[in-house]
Write a structure and sequence with these properties.
By secondary structure, the protein is α/β, with parallel strands linked by helices. Helices cover 42% and strands 23% of the residues.
Length: 241
């Protein structure tokens, strides 16, 4: 699963680069299909960021629950392509298939969106096999939220990290308490980049805000630092704390 997640991130990164280069940033409309925990949370956050959100679900109770928070909400079965057309989803540049356990409905809905030519489709997968099917179908971006969050929490539980985010190409950003090897002297003298293969990009002293780190920054014991680098390197560096 870990290797699959890494390859998925790499492919997603390449697709995102092309998508953002071509996307009309003035169009802030999106359809979120499936208003379970993932879909509703996503829809509410998009609303908070100023997007117009059309929320769709077969469950009338869920639609009623979130209708006051969303721009538009509809009770509908999106496995029917005619329903999607009636709702105007084919006119949207972005859509999220956030359907949970019903894999067949997820695949059919994604297929319908692709047939309608929606240019930017995000699809939630609940397993590696489900994700591969969605990828082969042509979904532009596939996410496995439970698995990716599980991997992130595993890093926090088993290591000395305060936070962990992994990006494409096995690259990560970590928040950790500064280890002794990085304290007491300017960063250029501690040479953490040369010795440990990581770069300190931010620092937070107790009672102060985060600030950018420079070569002249002196890290003190107890400081919280933001470190970037290859995942194995930042993992090893955080373990020194």
């Amino acid at each position: 699963m870990s290797e699959y997640l890494h390859s998925l991130r790499r492919r997603r990164g390449k697709r995102l680069a092309g998508t953002y280069a071509q996307r009309d940033t003035s169009d802030q409309r999106i359809a979120v299909i499936g208003l379970g925990r993932f879909g509703s949370s996503l829809a509410e956050e998009l609303m908070r960021r100023g997007w117009d959100v059309l929320g769709i679900d077969e469950d009338e109770r869920l639609v009623q629950r979130y209708s006051d928070f969303l721009t538009h909400a509809a009770v509908a079965d999106c496995t029917d392509p005619e329903v999607l057309r009636q709702l105007g989803v084919h006119e949207f540049t972005s859509a999220v298939v956030a359907i949970g356990t019903d894999i067949e409905a997820s695949i059919l809905t994604c297929s319908n969106l692709l047939e309608e030519g929606v240019p930017n489709i995000w699809a939630k997968a609940i397993s590696r096999q489900h994700g591969k099917i969605l990828e082969r179908l042509g979904a532009h971006h596939v996410v496995l939220p439970e698995h990716e969050m599980g991997e992130r929490v595993a890093h926090l539980v088993t290591g000395r990290m305060l936070d962990f985010i992994e990006f494409d190409d096995d690259y990560a950003l970590v928040k950790t308490v500064a280890p002794d090897v990085a304290t007491g002297v300017p960063l250029r003298e501690s040479a953490v980049r040369t010795k440990h293969g990581v770069t300190v990009v931010g620092i937070k002293r107790p009672g102060q805000d985060f600030t950018y780190a420079t070569a002249d920054t002196v890290v003190e014991p107890g400081d919280v630092i933001i470190v970037t680098g290859k995942t194995p390197a930042v993992e090893s560096f955080a373990d020194l704390s």
